[in-house]
Write a structure and sequence with these properties.
binds S-adenosylmethionine; Rossmann fold; 19 strands; 4 domains; alpha/beta; about 400 residues; four-stranded antiparallel sheet; about 30% helix; single chain
Length: about 400
């Protein structure tokens, strides 16, 4: 976004125009009509920027608590860190008491906004438009510390020395997602080679689907979820990461757990409750750690459901009451749900090839009650647990 457009979008009459479109809940399908209408009062470039900003502020509500004065570009918003997740990262970095933080690939400033609550930040991005947005967004975020922009390539440039370097490489070009750390922009191994020995702590945000074999030697890795959605993984080289550590953090509570997993978690039949671990725990391979914390058993060594006789209030699990368990057989399940007068089902699954979308119509539900169905399997074969609501 050009600097002159940014200045104009910040000005009072234009900002109020954006507020009005946000209040009217501008939708993607209305965009052309609204731009045409705006053109009677503003020039074409500004009209598009006003409408697009209103639309992106509405979309940004799932990432930022208060995107009211923020500015975005579409791809920058898609790639930006959710503010709650960025704050958690800043919180972990606070253990190192950094004097200065480098934010490499700062984009439109999603992370920088959180990092400036902790220390002064130098944000580097190769894209001058993003840099301008980051300056604006850090300004409106009003962090306690300053944000200094640098436009350039993080692999060749020599910004000031900092005790903490955070990098968030691009994981898509246009609409295409980039898979594998070597395909990121810039590639993770190049970032490590360039920065590891110039800082005490190097933290690199990566996709949560990172393969274990890609985790760099000597690093710690943390998977982070927000409201039950697995958002990201972070490779930590240096404090607060311990080499080899695997960590799962569940936001917004901030509950965090690390391995190694304990031995000796029993495997039992399904008891009165099934506990579903948060996806960050499952992805980090720390289900047994949570089982030990809540005093639950596993139902199978390879299935990430836990079981015990009582519900758990632990922030890393969701407990489901189980009224009955039966081997999975479509006709028998259908007639049992009819007997129980079930008409609405919430279907959960782990270790079952069936999807809820495939199963639901085949159940031909007609009753008046609702129930949770949990499709899973144990060494006895596929089974379904029914919990009436
Ligand atoms: C995932 S985005 C960063 C998002 C940011 N952390 C946020 O929360 O808003 C990655 C950024 O890296 C930038 N980038 C890609 N390659 C780069 C390079 N070689 N040097 C500097 N920046 C680069 C892109 O322009 C993009 O803005």
């Amino acid at each position: 976004m050009k600097q002159s457009i940014i200045e104009t979008l910040r000005s009072e009459p234009v900002d109020s125009e954006i507020d009005r479109l946000v209040a009217d809940r501008l939708a993607e399908r209305d965009l052309l009509r609204v731009i045409t209408d705006l053109r009677s009062r503003f020039d074409p470039e500004l009209s598009s920027a006003i409408a697009e900003t209103a639309l992106l502020r509405l979309k940004a509500r799932n990432k930022f608590l208060d995107p009211r004065r923020m500015l975005f570009d579409r791809e920058g918003l898609e790639q930006a860190s959710a503010h709650r997740v960025a704050l958690h990262r800043a919180d972990r970095l606070s253990e190192s008491s950094p004097g200065l933080i480098l934010d490499l690939g700062c984009g439109l400033g999603g992370d920088a906004m959180a990092l400036t609550t902790l220390a002064p930040v130098v944000g580097v991005d190769i894209d001058p438009n993003r840099i301008r947005l980051a300056v604006h967004n850090c300004d409106v975020a009003g962090g306690r510390h300053g944000f200094e922009p640098v436009c350039g390539d993080v692999l060749t440039l020599a910004p000031p020395k900092a005790s903490v370097v955070f990098a968030d490489p691009g994981r898509r070009t246009g609409r295409r997602r980039l898979h594998g750390l070597a395909s990121y922009l810039p590639p993770v191994d190049a970032l490590i080679e360039r920065w590891r020995h110039h800082t005490e702590t190097l933290a690199i945000k990566v996709a949560p689907g990172i393969e274990d074999r890609e985790i760099p030697d000597g690093s710690a890795i943390e998977w982070v979820s927000l409201h039950g959605d697995l958002r990201e993984a972070v490779i930590w080289l240096g404090a607060p990461g311990e080499p080899g550590e695997r960590r799962a953090t569940v936001l917004p509570t901030g509950a965090s757990i690390t391995g190694p997993e304990p031995d000796g978690i029993p495997i039992t039949e399904i008891d009165r409750y099934l506990h579903e671990p948060d996806p960050a725990v499952v992805r980090a391979g720390l289900v047994r750690c949570v089982a030990a914390e809540i005093g639950a058993a596993m139902i199978d060594p390879t299935i990430a459901y836990l079981t015990s006789g009582s519900p758990s209030a632990h922030p890393m699990v969701t407990s489901h009451r189980v009224d009955e368990v039966m081997p999975f057989h479509l006709k028998r399940l259908r007639s049992r749900l009819a007997e129980l007068d079930v008409g609405i089902v919430n279907i959960k699954k782990r270790g079952s090839p069936l999807t809820p979308e495939e199963l639901r119509p085949r159940l031909r539900l007609r009753g008046s009650r609702s129930a949770t169905l949990i499709l899973t399997r144990t060494s006895d074969g596929p089974l379904v647990a029914i919990g009436l609501d």
